[in-house]
């Protein structure tokens, strides 16, 4: 997959940009606060995911402005596509001229992998960050997964409301089995899909981490499910656990088991990375996971995703930088940095200054 043109009317601090990137390694350099990350975010939005910085849609509109406007031309192995996005009082999302209900509706069209400093929370942060990361990448290769996830979250909210109301109206408990059946159906599918994805991701990430660390440490991933089954289906196990813990759920007003309680454990040499990993190990571990995502997406969809690397190279020595870029040969890559001299094998160099983008001529 390749981005062929990005046009921006207004997006954060970026205004009136008409950009034609190259097919290989594109470096966007400049001082901090000039808009480099905003440019990557503008591409990422068309993957169907929310801002990789956790921003709300209103925050993507320029300060003092009324709306944000973007269009992106991108191609896959079959054809060129055109996505258009307008946020503000009048929200509009189009893909190839057809309206799309919401950003997740774009999932599966443009596949991207992004790494930014905020992704260190994949190790340092709580389980919610890791679940969100898994859901985002799975949603790119299996768009239907996001629909199931949305249905599960809706049912989870409705069950919580029912648990609280039932404390005052016990008769409502008669309907709880119906809600549990629907919740278990979606929850089991989410759990099985996540576990299968992690099983495929782990050996790829381990191999990449060995290359980054030059074989000094072992890296592994483990999906921790709250509905681990012992010979039973995940659906039946979840149903049984919900019945066993119904009293606790009624007291707390929350659902105590299900994929919303699961976690992805990251380990170095068999020890939890969250508790004992150094900052260097954590950064390398997240990079290994992200680059493994790229390889797995390519396996599933049959073509490489677009790679977005935000302020990554400054924390790596030259050997690790060269190793990672070598792993990404044949992909379109966008790299932001302050010093373009840190990146080798560049196909196009662009400077970002006060929200304006210049450069991009042939190098050498």
From TrEMBL:
<keyword id="KW-0742">SOS response</keyword>
<dbReference type="InterPro" id="IPR003395">
    <property type="entry name" value="RecF/RecN/SMC_N"/>
</dbReference>
<dbReference type="InterPro" id="IPR001238">
    <property type="entry name" value="DNA-binding_RecF"/>
</dbReference>
<keyword id="KW-0963">Cytoplasm</keyword>
<keyword id="KW-0234">DNA repair</keyword>
<dbReference type="InterPro" id="IPR042174">
    <property type="entry name" value="RecF_2"/>
</dbReference>
<dbReference type="Pfam" id="PF02463">
    <property type="entry name" value="SMC_N"/>
</dbReference>
<dbReference type="InterPro" id="IPR027417">
    <property type="entry name" value="P-loop_NTPase"/>
</dbReference>
<comment type="function">
    <text>The RecF protein is involved in DNA metabolism; it is required for DNA replication and normal SOS inducibility. RecF binds preferentially to single-stranded, linear DNA. It also seems to bind ATP.</text>
</comment>
<keyword id="KW-0227">DNA damage</keyword>
<comment type="similarity">
    <text>Belongs to the RecF family.</text>
</comment>
<dbReference type="InterPro" id="IPR018078">
    <property type="entry name" value="DNA-binding_RecF_CS"/>
</dbReference>
<keyword id="KW-0547">Nucleotide-binding</keyword>
<feature type="binding site">
    <location>
        <begin position="30"/>
        <end position="37"/>
    </location>
    <ligand>
        <name>ATP</name>
    </ligand>
</feature>
<feature type="domain" description="RecF/RecN/SMC N-terminal">
    <location>
        <begin position="3"/>
        <end position="354"/>
    </location>
</feature>
<keyword id="KW-0235">DNA replication</keyword>
<protein>
    <recommendedName>
        <fullName>DNA replication and repair protein RecF</fullName>
    </recommendedName>
</protein>
<keyword id="KW-0238">DNA-binding</keyword>
<keyword id="KW-0067">ATP-binding</keyword>
